[in-house]
Design a protein that fits this description.
Length: 254
């Protein structure tokens, strides 16, 4: 693993445009279960009944049972070493954009500023009828939360069957087309269009570094370096290695 970390550090130190694509696995060490690992959210709630936009419009009270469960863990979650390490890499000018599928705001809480949110953000709610917006924290005591017009509010996250923001897609595809390195962290890469980012980057010559507890459909095909293990451990080890190499003058020679 040490050699792979060294190789990854060199790639990142030499890359002029480095991106990260993250999924729920990056927040598991903050106490937020992912979706498809054993014991994940979809083991408890059938996504067809709880995570589609038609399920929400037809039975919002039922969907809010799952949303309240998620909100309990997300609202108390703090950024872990993976979020903080990626925030440090951004500050060092070595990670330029994060494209995340997560809605927990933990990348921003961990110091990252350039975050493209594919599936929205759960910290705000909207009324589908009168379009009024609210902060989730202001409605936490209401079950389910309602708009002043009386309708049940929807979190500003993308449900299955809803379109990803065209701006988020356009920007992320444009970046993936010119990236020199892409870190794919904590995602099963089964949901499109986010899961097309690695192959777009690969086709344009980027090095693909995958950080995951287990192999995915990318590992044997698109991935160049597979760092197997927990995102928090691996990213903090990678950031330490990059700092050591920088302090030793790596990459500063003209
Ligand atoms: N460190 C690294 N990887 C981890 C860790 C960890 N501590 N814990 C879990 N993982 C990995 C799992 O092995 C899995 O490959 O993270 C991945 C999580 O995959 P999913 O649960 O499928 O989550 P994600 O890929 O983000 O799902 C994409 O699907 O349900 C929708 O909208 C939802 O945004 C979500 C999308």
């Amino acid at each position: 693993m040490k050699n792979l970390i060294n190789e990854t550090a060199e790639i990142i130190l030499n890359s002029k445009l480095t991106l990260a694509l993250t999924g729920a696995g990056v927040s598991v060490e903050s106490g937020i279960p992912d979706f498809r690992s054993a014991g994940g959210l979809w083991a408890k709630y059938n996504p067809a009944e709880y995570a589609t936009i038609s399920a929400f419009t037809e039975r919002p009270e039922k969907v809010w049972e799952m949303l309240r469960d998620m909100d309990k863990v997300v609202s108390g979650a703090r950024p872990n070493k993976a979020h903080i390490g990626m925030g440090e890499l951004e500050k060092m000018g070595l990670l330029h954009h994060i494209i995340t599928q997560n809605v927990d705001n933990l990348h921003q809480d961990g110091g990252s500023k350039n975050v493209i949110e594919y599936h929205g953000n759960a910290s705000t709610l909207s009324c589908l009828w009168c379009k009024k917006g609210y902060k989730s924290e202001d409605k936490r005591k209401e079950h389910p939360p309602k708009c002043q017009c009386g309708k049940i509010l929807k979190p500003d996250v993308i449900f299955f069957g809803e379109a990803i923001s065209a701006q988020a897609m356009e920007r992320s595809f444009q970046l993936a087309g010119s990236a020199e390195a892409l870190m794919v962290v904590g995602t099963s890469a089964v949901v499109s269009p986010a899961n097309t980012i690695p192959s777009i980057a690969k086709q344009n010559g980027a090095k693909i570094i995958e950080i995951n507890k287990e192999r995915t459909s990318l590992t044997g095909s698109v991935t160049d370096i597979f760092l197997k293990g927990s995102a928090g451990e691996i990213i903090s080890e990678l950031v330490d290695r990059i700092k050591d190499m920088r302090n030793a003058g790596y990459g500063t020679s003209l």
